[in-house]
């Protein structure tokens, strides 16, 4: 298991500092008087019968985040468990919240991804300030599988975590890194064991790459740094079965970027990619790329879009994309939805709040992330649903 940090996307705080920050947040938070898993909010205060543009449901406990959702409506993330030690959770509308637990010797757990078959990937950690950790930090990537109605937890021998992302797909594959060359590798798992590993090509032999997402195809979205300049790239197999690295085009005057998510190819072979790009004095702009077959067994970029942010907005990220090309992410510190047809929609926040993030979207236009909840004075895991 490797841990990588990209400070331009999300800040990964040192464990000792995270504990101190969490203690402050915990004191400030207060339990809402509304049901934890059923607090519901609708854009503009409209009744549900009026078919609102977007609805919001808060799930789980305090200090929560929802990190991933599959097409079956299964949501995973983390929230405060007993004693406000962070615990990974699994949520469905029918069953509510289930905590996924941790391994002996670890005090906390985090869920980052869920497959279409319901396997959850995340990590277990022991933080410096936790009494049971003996003043040392420890972490292991893990997978949770439901067996006979009971969640089992298995340590992973491979795979890599970058901030809060573990690129995995439905074929028991993940992206890891070769310990010697540091080159990205696609690993196939059996339980927690790596049974095969295949290197994917570098854009620059002297550069370093980062993987953010992985599809079933398989394709990988990420970034490379040829000559120290970060550029968005994807990796895919061509018709001959060879892995190819494809840089994604940037708009004029934009200099750097990253591909943060990638869709499955549709029936015509079209692929959508979301991400970000920046240049000059501007902040990041959310991006959507469209790729189509090039007629020669590969892919080519057919569209490069800077997504709508409106006036006075300076920083946006296209965190996730679904099969039709809808993108979600954040605009400054607010969650946003960019439909494939153009335009944008700011996602509703509880009680007139103005802080939140969206991390993932499924093909049914369910979006998950977090929203600041004024009723509890705390961040809560959020599920938005669009018609």
Please tell me about this protein's structure.
The protein is mostly beta strands. 4% of the residues lie in helices and 48% in strands. The chain has a domain at 66-170. The chain has one helix at residues 15-28; strands spanning 2-4, 39-42, 55-62, 65-69, 75-80, 86-92, 96-99, 108-114, 120-126, 138-147, 150-155, 160-162, 173-177, 184-190, 193-199, 209-214, 219-224, 231-237, 243-247, 256-262, 271-278, 285-293, 299-306, 316-321, 327-331, 334-338, 345-346, 356-361, 366-373, 378-385. The strands form 8 sheets. It has a 5-stranded antiparallel beta sheet. The chain has a 4-stranded antiparallel beta sheet with strand order 4-5-6-7, with no helix packed on it. The protein is globular, with a radius of gyration of 20 Å. The two termini are 39 Å apart.
List keywords for this structure.
single chain; 387 residues; mainly beta; 5-stranded antiparallel beta sheet; 4-stranded antiparallel beta sheet; 1 helix; globular
- The main sheet orders its strands as 2-3-30-29-28
What structural class do the secondary elements suggest?
mainly beta
The 3D shape can be described as globular
Task: Note the beta-strand portion.
Answer: over 45%
Low-confidence stretches: 7-27, 32-52
Give the rounded overall mean pLDDT.
87
The largest pleated sheet is described as: 5 strands, antiparallel
Tally the helices.
Answer: 1
Q: What is the total tally of β strands?
A: 30
Give the N-terminus to C-terminus distance in angstroms.
39 Å
What is the helix content?
A: under 10%
Radius of gyration equals: 20 Å
């Amino acid at each position: 298991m490797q841990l990588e940090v990209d400070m331009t996307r999300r800040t990964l705080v040192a464990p000792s500092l995270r504990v101190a920050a969490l203690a402050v947040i915990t004191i400030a938070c207060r339990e809402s008087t509304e049901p934890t898993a059923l607090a519901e909010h609708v854009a503009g205060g409209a009744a549900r019968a009026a078919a609102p543009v977007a609805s919001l449901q808060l799930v789980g406990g305090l200090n929560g985040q929802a990190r991933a959702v599959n097409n079956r409506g299964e949501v995973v993330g983390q929230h405060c468990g007993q004693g406000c030690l962070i615990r990974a959770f699994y949520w469905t509308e029918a069953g509510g919240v289930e905590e996924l637990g941790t391994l002996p010797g670890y005090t906390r757990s985090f869920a980052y991804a869920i497959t279409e078959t319901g396997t959850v990937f995340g990590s277990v950690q022991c933080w410096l300030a936790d009494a049971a950790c003996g003043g040392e930090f420890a972490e292991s990537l893990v997978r949770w599988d439901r067996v006979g109605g009971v969640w089992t937890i298995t340590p992973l021998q491979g795979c890599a975590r970058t901030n809060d992302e573990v690129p995995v797909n439905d074929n028991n594959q993940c992206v890891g890194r070769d310990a010697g060359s540091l080159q990205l590798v696609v690993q196939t798992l059996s339980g927690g064991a790596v049974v095969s590993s295949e290197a994917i090509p570098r854009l620059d032999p002297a550069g370093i790459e980062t993987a953010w997402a992985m599809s079933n195809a398989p394709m990988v979205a990420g970034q490379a740094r040829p000559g120290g300049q970060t550029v968005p790239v994807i990796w895919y197999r061509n018709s001959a079965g060879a892995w190819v690295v494809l840089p994604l085009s940037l708009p004029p005057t934009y200099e750097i970027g990253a591909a943060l998510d990638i869709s499955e190819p549709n029936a015509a072979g079209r692929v959508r990619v979301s991400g970000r790009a920046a240049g000059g004095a501007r902040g990041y702009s959310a991006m959507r790329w469209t790729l189509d077959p090039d007629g020669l067994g590969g892919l080519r970029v057919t569209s490069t879009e800077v997504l709508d942010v409106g006036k006075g907005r300076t920083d946006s990220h296209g965190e996730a994309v679904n099969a039709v090309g809808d993108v979600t992410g954040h605009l400054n510190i607010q969650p946003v939805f960019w439909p494939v047809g153009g335009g944008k929609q700011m996602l509703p926040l509880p009680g007139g709040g103005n802080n939140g993030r969206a991390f993932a979207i499924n093909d049914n236009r369910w979006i998950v992330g977090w929203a600041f909840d004024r009723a509890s004075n705390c961040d809560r895991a959020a599920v938005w649903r669009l018609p």
